[in-house]
């Protein structure tokens, strides 16, 4: 159960009258964000830290109740670390790296999502979404106290928008009546049912999966417990559903998902006695528990055709939606924010042309397609659509218990990993081609140990020239961009992980790292002309 502080988090930003409501003419803001969920607040954090005024408009007054998303990936924690709020998340969250797959009553497969050392953060933490949101709101309050231009406006519902060539007119309703503001850029972070998407008449296309899943969050009493691992059953012996998923959350709360089929009476299934019947069959008659939250959901894999519509940009579930298997929803949304924030910052500060934002659509569209593909494959494996598909799946599960070749085919939800932006116009691919595949241009930088910490915190959120066992200048300037030079030696990492992840067979390497910590270019030695060309390309100054 959420503690008392977060039970009250739904009032995290109660309605207050804004000076904009008394202005004689609509006030223009650089960025207005529709939606105060995790993606909207993260966007405000990203922009506010750059000194860009960001206004969040939300029809509610704080975080929603119910655990909803619970699995937050290593990449999301690394992004939150740059925002300054990963510490309390890691302290509160339940850390896990291991998952197990069961077929009927047998453990047929298990996996470790982070089998290597040398990373600051674990593969995943489990934590109820209200905590994740509140920790970011807490960080917003800290930054506001030091002058960061972020504003969260609760009970400010956007009723309509007017798209202009160089701005957006936004009509807002409050408990005290309507008012109008303008924005250079409007960001839609308003969820899968995005009102903004509807206002602009934009399509949201894809596939709806005909199955239903019952979520039950419970707090078990006494000594009842399971390991801190992800457990997934295909055709579980307790017969509570066609499949079952179990996760531990903070506060001794456990999340259980039951696959209950498409043709069900939702009203009947949601009755407490019927939910308890499923739980009792799974846990046994002697386990006492308290029901915290329950819901039934179906899901879809859908996306917008494009994530930019003039002066409006879409992020998170408003732009794309996937099944929950694989924890790709909130985590992919955090990657959206990470990709969009620095690009919008360069455009607003006149350091890059507006066309840089087209790369947001390409790169995160690529990420959405990857997530939808993986989610669709997982769903088809979990819920076979034909008898022959089910026979194949069950054969894979049987074989995987003793035969390693079958285990890669087991798919109970491929877990979220960072997207690699292969084919992006921001990549320079004429440098060091013999280096590790995992750090090719477009890839997310893997963490690595240093003598006094870890690599990713050293990179920060500027453009960085990362020199490993290579000579490089102490400073570098170009077109007003913030470019830092970080020089490290693989000798300082006796584990060899830095060299293994960034050098491969090469003796030295010089990387250009983007503000979202994706590789833009890689060279064996520093060359000023090549670096300047790569930087122009990575910042959108040169197509």
Task: Report on the architecture of this protein.
The chain is an alpha+beta fold. The chain folds into 3 domains: 4-94 and 124-203 and 305-353, 3-Layer(bba) Sandwich (FAD/NAD(P)-binding domain), CATH 3.50.50.60; 206-301, 2-Layer Sandwich (D-Amino Acid Oxidase, Chain A, domain 2); 437-538, Glutaredoxin (3-Layer(aba) Sandwich). It has 14 helices and 25 strands. The chain has helices at residues 4-7, 38-49, 74-83, 86-92, 129-145, 195-199, 266-269, 272-283, 329-348, 356-382, 387-400, 455-459, 497-502, 528-538, and strands spanning 27-34, 54-57, 71-73, 94-96, 98-103, 106-112, 124-126, 150-153, 157-163, 168-174, 177-188, 205-220, 230-234, 243-249, 253-259, 289-303, 308-309, 312-314, 320-321, 449-450, 453-454, 463-468, 483-488, 509-513, 519-523. Strands 1, 2, 8, 9, 10, 11, 17 and 18 form an 8-stranded mixed sheet that branches. The protein has an 8-stranded mixed sheet with strand order 6-5-13-14-15-12-16-19, with helices on both faces. A hairpin with a 2-residue loop joins strand 17 (308-309) and strand 18 (312-314). 48% of the residues are buried.
